[in-house]
Model the fold of this input.
Amino acid sequence: MENQEVISKVNDFLIDEFEIDEDQLIPAASLKETLEIDSLDYVDLVVIIERNFGFKVKGEDFAAIKSLQDFYDYIIEKAQVN
Amino acid sequence: MNRVVITGMGIYSTIGKNIEEVNNSLYNGKSGIGFEQLRKDMGFRSALTGIIERPNLKGELKRRQRVGMAEEGEYAYVATVEALKQAKIDDDFLERFDVGILYGNDSSARAVVNSHDLLKEKKDTALLGSGAIFQSMNSTITMNLSTIFKLKGINLTVSAACASGSHAIGMGYHFIKSGLQDIIICGGGQEINAHSMGSFDGLSAFSIREDQPQKASRPFDRDRDGLVPSGGGATIILESYESAVKRGANIIAEVIGYGFSSNGDHISVPNVEGPAKSLEMALRDAQLKSNQIDYINAHATATPVGDLNEAQAISKVFGEKTPYISSTKSMTGHEMWMGGASEIVYSILMMQNSYVAPNINFENPDEFSAKLNIATETIKNHNIDIFLSNSFGFGGTNSSLIVKKIK
Done:
């Protein structure tokens, strides 16, 4: 899967499922503060990532993911391995 | 002791999605019953059910507010928005004052079944999502509505089978009467789905008049053959008279009596003594004689034994001359956990608009219903100053409420 394809998929589910405004999706955006992803939303991110990319994220992996760019990078890396 | 009044009400049911629609349906004797093929495919004895459309709350509530809400929570939410609006209670008021919630609910089966099916498929609880647990619990309605409306008072679900909604109002009445709370959102919610009703269908308690769905719910009729499961959400705003006057709220009615009892008998077969005791207690609480009641909204679900025993209980308490009686379940089906609350809303609509809604499908009485003054068609221009509403449930739990018009 191309990097841009991953980014596009992530953006799509953030817009569709998490109802985040498209103009907020800038790479530097903080998942917690800017995109307002809370502790329960991370539970749903695990479900959506599995559905879209076919791998299971461990909850603790999210600890190191602060920005949207971190999130893209994490998915890109995991998607390549899988 | 405080007087306890009603300052708002809202409804989302199989006969209408708001007060106005429901009032029209009641007046015109419209049925909300239909046939659901899925139930037949799943092996149900009866595919009859109340038919309801799930409200679309996307855009109205944030995602986080929606994901933990099961269908009965959605119905209850819509009804509560309407009730709060009528009571003139806005977000600012809810922020500043302690408003409570006491809501009847006794299952959230679809959420449990969905989670179980998903777990069997995925074999990983991490893939069940964040909303499953909040949808699955009996207190799903109160936990969701208290969060959405930022409630700061009593926060409690009342589970008492088919008397849940009625007891919730009875509890709220006592909380306000004793001065513990000024305002409480009371009501009842009921899921409508095959997953929640298979085990009940297995008792052969449902009508099998599948070729005539709208004729199937026949409370008190000689040829009744069982109830039709249904549901939705109904809310009333209970408030102390003093608080309502102070706020300048529109007082709709006053709750003046609550009676309750437990049969101490069979788990599913009702008796005569328990319901009669509940009726008598409500009359005593309201300091009324039976001839002062202008209308009875009966529990009558259209099961052979249940209606038979309620008819005898009413005759025992009211004697030979009863007020007009109807079971609105003839139109709505049995709204179960919600019924005790929705039937207060239905009866208040009759009181406000001076009519008695018909007990549709009542064509021939049996030995005991023949002694009751059952409204076979809409009784127009009938003044109701005081009504009584009965709700009885599995385990022999009984609840009777008496409501009076404010003049």
